[in-house]
Amino acid sequence: WGLLLLAAALGGAAAAPCPAPCVCDNLRAHVLCLNGSLVAIPDTIPELTKKLDLRGNSFSVIPAGAFLATPYLTHLDLQHCKVERLEEGAFRGLGRLVYLNLASNSIALLYQESLDGLSSLQQLILEGNRIEEIQPGAFGHLGSLTVLDLRANALVYLPDMVFQGLQVLRWLRLSHNTLHVLGSEAFAALPALRRLSLDHNELQALPGEALARLDGATRLDLGHNPITYVAEEALAMASLRHLFLDHASLQDVAPDAFALSPQLRVLDLRENQLQGLPPLAGAGGLARVSLHGNPLLCSCLLRPFHNWLARARVQADGACAAPPALRGRPLDSLKPPEMRCSRPRPPPNPTAPSEQPRAAASRRCPRGCVCSSDFRHGSCANRDLQEIPREFPGDTRLLDLRQNTFGTVPPDAFPGLKELVSLHLQSCGIRALEPGALRGLESLVYLYLTDNHLSTLAAAAFEGAPQLAYLDLDRNAFTRVPAGAFQLLPNLISLHLQHNAIGELAEGDLAGARGLRWLYLTGNAIRHIAPAALAPAKMLEKLQLEGNHLVEVPTAALRGLSALSELKLSRNPIKRMGDGVFLPVASSLQHLYLDNMGLEEISPRAFAGLGPKIRSLYLESNKMSNIPNMSNFTGLEILNLQDVPFHCDCQLLPLRRWINKLNLRVGATCGSPPEARGLKVKLSTTFQTCPGWGRGEVGEANPEKTTAASKPSKKKRSGKSPARGFNKSRA
């Protein structure tokens, strides 16, 4: 009787009507309603449906009980559906659901009962929403969840016990938010967590107290956070094996920073501001340290670290930035006698006056501030100060004055701080940096002026700070690059001018910035770049122009930039790319971002000159229906072609063949003809009528497979690109 009832049920499902404009595969119990005009969840979906794909519709609200008619669902995809709110009980009745994808919607708040009824759910994808707040108990009913993806939302704060109930969660993804405060018990209820991704946030210090609750976590991603220092015993994670602190703002790491993480094997410190490191004696199990992209000073001061690497048999990559004789030399090729100091310290003078008054002076500290003699740091952050305090210890190296209301920085504002290396003046209401403001800061390397009201700068403001290398002016009020302001900064390496109101780059704007390597101009209003605007910065390696108003690739301005390896043009209204637009940088370019531009046409020779050196290419979310021949892009590690409406006819066959040979997930789908819409380019059958079909095809019987010969080694795919991970997580 049971078999007869099941047969009757299946027969009924086969005969059940399929709601327009959906496609129903009753044999596999799959229903696809892609990119349609649905404004409500259809109530005529076959009851026995297991997989329901509703991507690209317009639901706005998922009401309570929306899926009560489909209790057998195991997979539900609601990406790009303009969902703003999940009503309490929206998924009630879906006790069998194991996968729920709500990415790329507009959800701002998770209520306590929004996810009620999902007792079997294993993967929840909430990437790319606007979630600002998670109410306590929102995940309390998800006892089977193993992966929670909250990337690219608007989270600022994680309260205590916010993830309570997730007893078997193994991977928590919080990348690309604006987190800067974590409750000390935020991760207390995650006993099974093995991987935590906190990269691309606003954490200014390593959240050691919150992380100490994660006894079982083996991988921690903290890259792309403005963390400047890792203190003694800052990280107590008993099982941690892989720690990523790349692309942060690190200037120093304490010798015992990782002493309480005894299982640590791999430490990634790439692309920071480290001139050196002490021997990391506390990290007894360490096997590898990555230091590429740091301005390493290979003098006698680095010798203790170098000797420790040899004794502890720790592999380290990275290259010297100075002194000139060693510039470019790999760290592991150096011999101790080569690491010299040009000016040895003179022996102590027995006739010198007593050091006691000097020592006493070094312990002074302005009232209301905190001064650490161990770390040589001073902090008066968020003290509601209206004037810059004085009388800091003369040996202070890092001074944190964030979140005060100074208004202006007057001349000689920091007397007696000749050893100061890093100065933090973010969010201080500063409207003017007066001439001579930094006078006497002869060792200053890092200056942070983010989130102020600066609209102009004179070169004289930087008088007396010739070593300044990192200048952060993001989120100020500049309407143009302060021309000539960098004349007194011959050592400037990194310049941040993101999220201002700059309308153009003119000739002379970067005069004097001859050592500039990284220029960040994301989120301005740049419409034009003069041909000679970037000429002074001949050593430029990274140019980020994302989110501006450019209508064409600034080819003329790229001439002479023979070292440029990364170019970001994402989110500019460039509709067409002509021939040879990247020729000036073709010999050096490795990472090219052309996504989200509304790009409609790419000339067949637009990529002329580019080839094996290109490692990552981003073309997602554009409007072209074909792309040029890229068969010579043999070094690709990442290729993103998602959300491009390819016309899958015979003209696209060469691209289809090329994609089929790649061992990458590229996300390419057909936008037309109608019978192929929504299908992967690899899987579309529209090519089978093309002349020459079947000749030289790889894996025609199963397009998802590639030959062993076409697979790059794991080492090559392991992710050296700065945009690591698309082909692993977003394909």
Automatic annotation (TrEMBL):
Residues 329-341 have a biased composition (Basic and acidic residues). Pfam families: LRR_8, LRRCT. GO terms for cellular component: plasma membrane. Residues 17-51, 364-398 form the LRRNT domain. Keywords: Disulfide bond, Extracellular matrix, Glycoprotein, Leucine-rich repeat, Repeat, Secreted, Signal. It is found in: Secreted, Extracellular space, Extracellular matrix. Residues 294-342, 645-691 form the LRRCT domain. Residues 1-15 form the signal peptide. Its main location: secreted. The keyword rRNA processing does not apply. Residues 325-360, 692-731 are annotated as: Disordered. It comes from the Eukaryota. The keyword Signal applies. Belongs to the small leucine-rich proteoglycan (SLRP) family. SLRP class IV subfamily. Associates with collagen and binds to collagen fibrils. Potential negative modulator of chondrocyte differentiation. Inhibits collagen fibrillogenesis in vitro. May influence chondrocyte's differentiation by acting on its cellular collagenous microenvironment. This is Chondroadherin-like protein. It comes from Tyrannus savana. The gene is Chadl.
